[in-house]
Recover the amino acids of this structure.
C-alpha cells in the first residue's frame, strides 16, 4: 500500500530542476524518475510527470513555431524576390553624356494583342485602337479583328490571339484599357529608347531587342551598361551633347550642301583624350535601325580608312622637327616637281621656289614635305609613324576601328608620298589619336569614350615627341590659320586662337588618281593654340568625301575651301560650352604683321 | 513557495499550472494570429506602395525620355531656326558682363540725344 507523505503529497521531495545545459544529457533522469515512481507504487506521479513533460515539450515546440511565424510575418524578405522589380538579364542601364543628359534608356512599353472571338463590335474596336495608335498597320489590325490567317494556307482561327502592334506608352495603354473593350490584351515589352533620334547615332550605337549591344558605345560598353542596370545606375560617356549637337548640325548642313558621299567630324579634348563629339554622315534613326540604309549605319570615323592628304603633313613636320635634322627655317627647293622612280610629285601652283619649312607647311607644299621626309629618312618616318599609331588600327573602346592600309615596304617613293598623306589609308579616328599626341605636349594616349571624373588623371600614355616640338607644331598650326591655307577656318572662329591644317586628297577613281576635283577635303583644327601645354585644348577634325563644286568656294573642292570654314563654324559654336573665351584683339581683325619665324620654335623642356 | 507546491496547486479543481499553460498557449496562438494578420495587412499595403512607386518610376522615366527628346539639340536648333530665326552668335553678338554698364551708358546718351532732337 502506498502511503502519502503529507509534507510531500506529490512525492517529489528531492526533485530538482536540471539545468538547461544538462537537459539533453540528463534525459535519462526523467525516465529513471518515472521508473522510481512506478516501482514505489505511485503511478499517479508517473502519469503526472509524463503529462507535465509532454505539455512542456508541446509548449516549447509551439513557442518556437510562434516565434518563427511572427518573425516570418514581421520581417518578410518577399521583396527580395519580386520579379517585377528585379532587373532581368536583358535590362540595360541608362547611357548618359558627360553632363548626365540621356542618350539611351530602357522604357517599358506595351504590345497590343487581340482575341477576335471575343470582339463583337469590330468597327468600334478598330476606330478606338486607331484613335490611340494611328501608326498601327491597318492590314495587321484588320487581319487580327477578323481572325484571318497570318500565312497563306493557314486556316482561320478566331480563337487565336493576334499581335497588332507594340510601343504603346503606359498612358496610351491605360487609356485603351479604360475603354473596357472586350478581346484586348496588353503584354509588357521592354525596349531601348533613343530620345535623340539621329543625334550621335554612330557613337551611341544601338542594342538588339534582347538587350545586347550591337554597335557604338552600346556595344563597346555592353558589360558596364548591363551592370549599371543591376545597380540601377547609368553609364556616362565622354560625349558632350551640346558639342555633339553643334558638330553634327554643322557637318550635316555642309554635307547636304556639298552633296558629299560621306563626311566625318570629331571633337577631342587632347589633354585628357576624351572624345567630346563624333559624327558620321549620313546618319540614321537609332529608334529604327532596321529601316536604315546599311551604308548609313557605317561609322566612317572609325570603320572607314581614307588617304588623308596634306593633313598628314602635321605628322611629317612633327617627325622632322623632333629628330632635330630640320628646323622651321630649313629651306627646301620646290621650283620643279620632285621626280622619283615611276612617279612625279607636284605642288598646287603657287609660284613658289624656295620655301623654309614653316612655309612648306603654310603653303602645303607636297614637294617640300616629300623632300623633308627623304632628308629625315625612311627609318625615322617608320619609327615616328608607328609611334603616332598610324600603322595600326586606332586603340578604342569602339569595335568600329579599322586597320590602316599601308605600303608593304618602305621605299623612297613611299617615304615621299606618305609625307603628304598618300600611299597610306587610315581612319579619321587614327588620325585624331595620332594628331592629339602631337598637340597635347607630345604624349600618345588612346582616345576614349569614357568620361573622366573631375580631378581624375588621364591615361599616362607614352611620350612620342618632345614638348618643344609640340609647341612648335601648335605655333605652325596657328600660323597656317592666320597666314596659310586655313584662313577660312580662322575667319569663322575669330578670337579663339584657332590653328589648323588643310588636306585635299585626290581620290582614286577606277584605279587612278582623279585630278578633276574629286577630293577628300579635310581640316584638322586645334584651339586655343596659346596657353600652357598641359591646359585643356580641343581638336576638331572635319572630312568631306567628294564634295561637289559650289559657287561660293570658287569651284574649289579643297580642304581649305570646303572643310576649313565648317571646322571654324564648329569651333565658334562649341567653344562657349568648353569654357574657351573669345579674345578679339586688333591683330585679329586688322592687317597681319609679317611673320617672324624666330617666334615659331617652341622652347619647352 | 516550493516548486512542487506550485505544480500541485489547484483552482476550482483545475491545476493552476495547467491553467497557466493553457493561458500561455492561447495567448501565443492568438498573438501569432493577430501579428500575422497585422503583418499581412501591412505587407499588402507595402506591395501596393511598391507598385505605386514602380508606376511612378516608370512615369518619371517616360517624362525624362520625353524631356530629353524635346530638348535634343537637333530639335531645338531646328525650331529656333524655323520660328525664331536664331543662329549661332557672331563675335559682335557676344559681350562680357563687365562691359554691360558701358553699353547702358551709351544707350542712355543715344536716348537723350533722340529726345532732344524730338523736342520742339
Amino acid at each position: 500500500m502506498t502511503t502519502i507523505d503529507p509534507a510531500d503529497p506529490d512525492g517529489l521531495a528531492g526533485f530538482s530542476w536540471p539545468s538547461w545545459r544538462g537537459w539533453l544529457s540528463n534525459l535519462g533522469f526523467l525516465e529513471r524518475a518515472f521508473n522510481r515512481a512506478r516501482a514505489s507504487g505511485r503511478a499517479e506521479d508517473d502519469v503526472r510527470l509524463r503529462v507535465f513533460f509532454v505539455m512542456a515539450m508541446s509548449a516549447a515546440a509551439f513557442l518556437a513555431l510562434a516565434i518563427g511565424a511572427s518573425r516570418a510575418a514581421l520581417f518578410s524578405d518577399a521583396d527580395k524576390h519580386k520579379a517585377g522589380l528585379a532587373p532581368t538579364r536583358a535590362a540595360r542601364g541608362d547611357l548618359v553624356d558627360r553632363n548626365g543628359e540621356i542618350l539611351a534608356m530602357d522604357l517599358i512599353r506595351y504590345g497590343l494583342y487581340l482575341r477576335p472571338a471575343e470582339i463583337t463590335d469590330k468597327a468600334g474596336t478598330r476606330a478606338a485602337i486607331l484613335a490611340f495608335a494611328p501608326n498601327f498597320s491597318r492590314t495587321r489590325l484588320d487581319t487580327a479583328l477578323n481572325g484571318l490567317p497570318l500565312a497563306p494556307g493557314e486556316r482561320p482561327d478566331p480563337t487565336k490571339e493576334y499581335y497588332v502592334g507594340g510601343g504603346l506608352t503606359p498612358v496610351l495603354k491605360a487609356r485603351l484599357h479604360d475603354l473596357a473593350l472586350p478581346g484586348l490584351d496588353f503584354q509588357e515589352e521592354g525596349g531601348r529608347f533613343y530620345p535623340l533620334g539621329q543625334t550621335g547615332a554612330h557613337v551611341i550605337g544601338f542594342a538588339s531587342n534582347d538587350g545586347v549591344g550591337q554597335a557604338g558605345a552600346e556595344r563597346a560598353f555592353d558589360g558596364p551598361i548591363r551592370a549599371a542596370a543591376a545597380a540601377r545606375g547609368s553609364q556616362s560617356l565622354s560625349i558632350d551633347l551640346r558639342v555633339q549637337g553643334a558638330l553634327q548640325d554643322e557637318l550635316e548642313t555642309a554635307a547636304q550642301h556639298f552633296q558629299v558621299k560621306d563626311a566625318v567630324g570629331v571633337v577631342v579634348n587632347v589633354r585628357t583624350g576624351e572624345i567630346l563629339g563624333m559624327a558620321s554622315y549620313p546618319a540614321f534613326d537609332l529608334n529604327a535601325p532596321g529601316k536604315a540604309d546599311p551604308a548609313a549605319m557605317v561609322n566612317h570615323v572609325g570603320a572607314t580608312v581614307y588617304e588623308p592628304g596634306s593633313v598628314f603633313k602635321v605628322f611629317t613636320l612633327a617627325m622632322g622637327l623632333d629628330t632635330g635634322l630640320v628646323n622651321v627655317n630649313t629651306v627646301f627647293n620646290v621650283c620643279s616637281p620632285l621626280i622619283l622612280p615611276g612617279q612625279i610629285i607636284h605642288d598646287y601652283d603657287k609660284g613658289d621656289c624656295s620655301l623654309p619649312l614653316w612655309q612648306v607647311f603654310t603653303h602645303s607644299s607636297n614637294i617640300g614635305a616629300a623632300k623633308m621626309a627623304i632628308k629625315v629618312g625612311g627609318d625615322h618616318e617608320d619609327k615616328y609613324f608607328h609611334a603616332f599609331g598610324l600603322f595600326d588600327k586606332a586603340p578604342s573602346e569602339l569595335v568600329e576601328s579599322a586597320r590602316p592600309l599601308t605600303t608593304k615596304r618602305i621605299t623612297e617613293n613611299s617615304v615621299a608620298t606618305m609625307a603628304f598623306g598618300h600611299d597610306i589609308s587610315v581612319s579619321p579616328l587614327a588620325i585624331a589619336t595620332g594628331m592629339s599626341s602631337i598637340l597635347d605636349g607630345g604624349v600618345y594616349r588612346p582616345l576614349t569614350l569614357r568620361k573622366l571624373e573631375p580631378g581624375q588623371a588621364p591615361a599616362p600614355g607614352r611620350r612620342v615627341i618632345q614638348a618643344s616640338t609640340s609647341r612648335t607644331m601648335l605655333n605652325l598650326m596657328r600660323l597656317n590659320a592666320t597666314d596659310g591655307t586655313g584662313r577660312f577656318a580662322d575667319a569663322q572662329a575669330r578670337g579663339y586662337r584657332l590653328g589648323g591644317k588643310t588636306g585635299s586628297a585626290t581620290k582614286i577613281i577606277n584605279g587612278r588618281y582623279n585630278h578633276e576635283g574629286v577630293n577628300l577635303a579635310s581640316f584638322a583644327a586645334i584651339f586655343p593654340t596659346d596657353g600652357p601645354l598641359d591646359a585643356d585644348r580641343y581638336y576638331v577634325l572635319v572630312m568631306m568625301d567628294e564634295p561637289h563644286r559650289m559657287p561660293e568656294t570658287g569651284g574649289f573642292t579643297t580642304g581649305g575651301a570646303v572643310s576649313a570654314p565648317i571646322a571654324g563654324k564648329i569651333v565658334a559654336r562649341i567653344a562657349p560650352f568648353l569654357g574657351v573665351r573669345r579674345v578679339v584683339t586688333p591683330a585679329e581683325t586688322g592687317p597681319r604683321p609679317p611673320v617672324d619665324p624666330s617666334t615659331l620654335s617652341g622652347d619647352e623642356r | 513557495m516550493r516548486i512542487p507546491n506550485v505544480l500541485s496547486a489547484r483552482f476550482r479543481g483545475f491545476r493552476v499550472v495547467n491553467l497557466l499553460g493553457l493561458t500561455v498557449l492561447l495567448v501565443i496562438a492568438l498573438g501569432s494570429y493577430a501579428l500575422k494578420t497585422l503583418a499581412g495587412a501591412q505587407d499588402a499595403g507595402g506591395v501596393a506602395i511598391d507598385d505605386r512607386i514602380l508606376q511612378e518610376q516608370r512615369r518619371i522615366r517616360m517624362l525624362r525620355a520625353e524631356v530629353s527628346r524635346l530638348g535634343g539639340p537637333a530639335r531645338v536648333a531646328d525650331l529656333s531656326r524655323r520660328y525664331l530665326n536664331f543662329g549661332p552668335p557672331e563675335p559682335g553678338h557676344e559681350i562680357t558682363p563687365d562691359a554691360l554698364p558701358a553699353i547702358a551708358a551709351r544707350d542712355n546718351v543715344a536716348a537723350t540725344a533722340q529726345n532732344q532732337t524730338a523736342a520742339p
